[in-house]
Task: inverse folding
């Protein structure tokens, strides 16, 4: 499983490229009545679902890492490394929840918070990698062994596509506009 064949790349291109094409096309296409594009519909509904599930995914990653944390506790400086990693992931979880609440409240801050969440993906990964490497005295190439880069890169790319949508979409602009969104709560 060491190589990534052309067919794997074709599948990745299809899985990412087709939704990106349609998202960009629908976001760039002017509507006959742009004022009518308000609320959680269309592509924004998919983004809302993804944002609602993202904290759950982070919690699932915590649960899946429980055995790794137990093994980490037996190493010298292991508890410090583990608690630091948990603290970083909890901070990211809090950011995800803040972004979710801003989205559900239709806050005009949502697009900026979503952008911050996107930037936080590589920042948390880099800080975590440096933290584990320095605390445990393990070379970076061992921390990054295997497919450790796949999930963060995929998450960063997919979220980047949604960031582009958030800043291009008329529906997003209308839904999270300061005047139309003040104090409204989304009805899901």
Result:
């Amino acid at each position: 499983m060491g190589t990534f064949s052309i067919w794997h790349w074709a599948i990745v291109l299809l899985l990412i490229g087709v939704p990106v094409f349609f998202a960009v096309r629908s976001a760039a296409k002017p509507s006959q009545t742009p004022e009518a594009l308000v609320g959680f519909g269309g592509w924004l509904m998919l983004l809302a679902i993804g944002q609602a599930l993202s904290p759950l995914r982070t919690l699932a990653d915590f649960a899946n890492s429980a055995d790794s944390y137990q093994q980490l506790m037996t190493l010298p400086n292991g508890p410090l490394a583990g608690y630091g990693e948990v603290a970083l992931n909890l901070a990211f979880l809090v950011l995800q929840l803040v972004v979710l609440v801003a989205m559900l409240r239709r806050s005009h801050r949502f697009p900026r918070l979503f952008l911050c969440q996107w930037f936080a993906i590589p920042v948390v990964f880099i800080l975590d990698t440096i933290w584990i490497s320095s605390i445990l005295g393990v070379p970076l190439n061992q921390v990054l062994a295997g497919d450790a880069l796949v999930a963060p890169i995929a998450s960063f790319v997919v979220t980047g596509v949604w960031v582009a949508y958030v800043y291009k979409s008329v529906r997003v602009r209308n839904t999270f506009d300061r005047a139309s969104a003040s104090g409204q709560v989304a009805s899901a």
The longest helix spans residues 78-104.
